[in-house]
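Components:
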Amino acid sequence: MTVELRELRRSFGGTVALDGLSLTIEQGELIAFLGPSGCGKTTALRCVAGFERPDTGAVFIDGADVTRVPANRRDAGMVFQSYSLFPNLNVRDNVAFGLRVRRRPTDERHSRAAELLELVGLGGFGERYPHQLSGGQQQRVALARALALQPKVLLLDEPLSALDAKVRVNLREEIRRLQLELGITTIFVTHDQEEALSVADRVAVLKSGRLEQVAPPAEVYDRPATPFVAEFVGTMNHLPGRVSGETVEVFGQFLPLDGAAPGEEVDVLVRPEAVRVTPAGDGRAFILASSFRGSIARLRIQLDGGGEVLADVPGHEAVRLAPGLKVDVTLVERPVLTAPRTAVAAPVEPVA
Amino acid sequence: MSGLTKARRRGGGAGWLAAAPLLLVTLIAFGVPVVVLVFGAFSVKGGGLGFDNLSATMKQPYIGALWSSLKLSAVVALGGTVLGAFLAQAVLTSRSGLLREAVLTASGVLANFGGVPLAFIWIATLGNSGVVTAALGLGSGALYNFWGLALVYMYFSVPLMVLVIAPALDGLKPQWREAAQNNGASTWQFWRMVGIPVLGPSLLGGAVLLFGGAFAAYATAAAMVGASVPLVTLQIADALTGNVLIGYENIALALSLDMIVVALLVMAVYLPMQKRSSRWLA
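Structure:
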C-alpha cells in the first residue's frame, strides 16, 4: 500500500507545523521522518493516523483519499512514543483489543494475540499486565497490538525514545526485521539520526514543516541536499574557504564544489572522516583532545590560524595521535558543499 | 546478627519513635472513644453485658432511621459521583484554563460547606418563605423531605467529587484514547473498555467518601428537617441529649456501632479494589 501526502499544511495558532509537505511512500517501504523538535514530523504522522486534520492538502492511502476519514476507521496501526498500553488489560487483551472492538470470537482473538506475541518475542507473556513489563517489552506489545488488525500502514511515533540505549538498538533491529518480514509500509518518526539511518529505506529530513531532502540513508549522509541536512545528519566541520571557479580553496587545497556556492568567502562543510591527520614536527595545527570510541577516535584539532576541526582516525591510532602532538591537516579529495560564511569556523556536532 | 540487620532494626525503632506522637493522638482521639462506644453498646440496663441495645437498634424506630440514612447516603453518593465526574471531565477537557481554575477553586470552597449555614442558605432560597419559592410561587414544604435533603447534601457532595476525581481524570493518558481509536474503537467503546475500568477505583473511592459524608452528616439535617426525615444521626442525638428520651444513651452508642459496621462493610468492598488497581494511574 502506498501512502501519499499531498501539499499538507497545518498550523497551531501562529505556529506552522506543516508547510506544504508532499511525499509518497512506496509499498513495503520503511521511511524515516527525521528532523529537530518542531519540524513537523509527528504532525505529519498524526495526519496519516487521523489524529490531526490538515488545514489544506490531502492524505491518500492506497490511492484513496482518507483526509476526512476518522482515526478509528483508518487502516493504520500506530505505536506511540510513550507507553500507551491499556493498564487495566493484560498483554493478551491489549494485543487483541482491536479484534475485540470488531467483535471477533474469543478463540480467534486469543490465537491471533498469541501468534503476534510470538512474533515480537514475548510468547508466554500474555497473562502479564503492562506494569509488570520493562519499557522495551511494553513497546514490543504495542507493536504487536498495532499489527493485530493487519493494517495497511504501520506508524511509529518515536517508539524507542523512552528506552535505554542498548534496548533501543535491539528493538529497532527487531522492528526492521518484522517490517521486512511482513512487507508493511511503515513511517518511522525519530529525531535520532543514527536510528533513522540504520533502519530506513529512505530518510525524509524535515525542517519547519518542509521537506529538505528525501533519499536513501547513504545519500542523505554523503550527498546532503542542503546545508541544513549536512549539519543535522552527522557531524560537520565548517572550514573557511574561498571559491575559485568550480573549486573552493581550503587549507591550500582546491576541492571541487558540490552545487552552487553562496558567495566567494564561504564555509566549506567537511565530515570528520574526510579530514586526514599526519604527525609533523613543523605542523600548522596541534591536537587539543582525543575521544576514543572503539573503532575510531575523534580528534579535536586546533588550527594555527584560529578555529578548530574535528577528525576521525582509526581507533588504533589514538595512542600515536595524542593531545599536544603537532600535526598537518589535509582533506580527502571529493566534492564539497559550501554554506554562507559564519563568524567563527567551528565544527557542528549533531543535535541528536 | 549482621550489621545490616542491626541497622535496619535501629532504623525501624527510630521510625516508630517518630510516629509515636501521631499514634498517641490517634489512640486518644479514636481508640479510646471506640472502646468506650463498644463497651457502652454492649452494657445493658441493670448492669452486665449483652445484646439488648443492638437488638433494639434493629427495631423501629431505629431500623427505619438506619435504613433512611442508608438510602439518603446511597442517593447522594450515586448522584454526586455521576454529576461530579461529568462536571470534572467537562471542565478538565475545556480549553479554558480560567474555567478550570475557577471550578476547582469553587469546588474547594463548596466541598467544605456544611452544617447550619448550608441549611440556612437553602431555607432562605427554597424554604417555605424562601426567595425563589416566593418568586416562582412554589408550594411549601418542597425542601423539607427526603429528596430536599438529598438535594442539599449534593450541594457539597458534587464539588467534593470534582476534587476527588479531577486528579484521576488528569491521569488518563491521551495516548490511551488515541491507541483505542487507532484500534477502531469509538468514544463509547474507549470509555467502556478502558476509561471507566481505569477510573473505577477512583470513582468508587469518591462514592465511598460521599456516602460517608452523607451518612455521618448531622447539623444540616437537624437544622433543616428535624424529625420529619428519620436519620440515624438525629436518633443518636435525641438519645444522647435526653431532650426526647431519657436513659437511652447506650442505644445511641449501639446506633453508633451500627454506623461503624456499615462504614467497615463499605470499606471492605472498596479497599481490595483500590489496592488492585491503584498502580494503573501511578
